[in-house]
Design a protein that fits this description.
Order of helices and strands: EEHHEEEEHHH
Helix content: 25-40%
Strand content: 5-15%
Structural class: alpha+beta
Shape: elongated
Number of helices: 5
Number of strands: 6
Number of domains: 2
Distance between the termini: 45 Å
Radius of gyration: 21 Å
Length: about 210
């Protein structure tokens, strides 16, 4: 870890420290990981640009403080949280941490509850044997007909979303959403009207991991 000066109150954030990862093949270089830009908003190009500029300025000041040379800078800010839909089902943190098996489950999740805030990061690991599921109804906006989504915008509360937002869970949602959309088009119906067994069948045809009732 780099030794950095104490930040002012308005600058303090849980990611104000940087991980310094060495390269055994090039001892003179290392990677700096993790810097938070709290309040970053992915709504439009103006707010995204503001987040990028804020992050770059902060990283540069820390590199200068450590008296090291910057060889490469990640050009864009990664947004941990975005807008979420209100779906036919809202996955709550209780649903997630209890491993609730939804009747219309189409994929699994695995990551711990991992909410990052201004006051710190407090991960909540899942208990052994708990495997959360994702219902197809959480990917369908409430009262919609021909819309299905996948990824971090899943209908969920903030704590559940902090676990559902990771790549593996989003990949499973995406495959399930894609299969459902294809079946809806093929059968000239809406995503919410596609029989669950047909979704599961198509997912299995493509070697997806389909939730099974215990």
């Amino acid at each position: 870890l780099l030794g950095l000066e104490r930040l002012r109150g308005e600058e303090r954030q849980p990611g104000s420290y940087l991980f310094k990862i060495g390269d055994p093949h090039n001892p003179a270089s290392s990677q700096l990981k993790r810097l938070y830009v709290h309040g970053a908003d992915s709504t439009n190009s103006r707010t995204v640009t503001l987040a990028n500029l804020t992050g770059r300025k902060s990283i540069l000041s820390r590199v200068r403080n450590s008296k090291e040379r910057l060889m490469h800078l990640q050009p864009e800010t990664g947004f941990r949280e975005i807008y979420r839909i209100i779906g036919e089902t809202v996955v709550t943190v209780q649903d997630y941490t209890s491993g609730r098996h939804f009747e219309d489950a189409v994929s699994y999740a695995f990551y711990p509850v991992d909410l990052h805030t201004r006051t710190g990061v407090k991960p909540k690991p899942l208990k052994r044997g708990i495997v959360p599921t994702v219902p197809i109804s959480s990917l369908i906006p409430k009262d919609s007909k021909n819309i299905i989504v996948a990824g971090r915008c899943i209908s969920s509360d903030r704590l559940a979303n902090s676990a559902l937002r990771v790549q593996a869970a989003c990949m499973g949602m995406g495959q399930a959403a894609g299969a459902t959309a294809a079946l809806a088009v093929r059968n000239k119906t809406t995503p919410s009207s596609v029989p669950l067994e047909k979704i599961h069948g198509l997912l299995r045809d493509h070697n997806a991991i389909v939730p099974e009732k215990s």
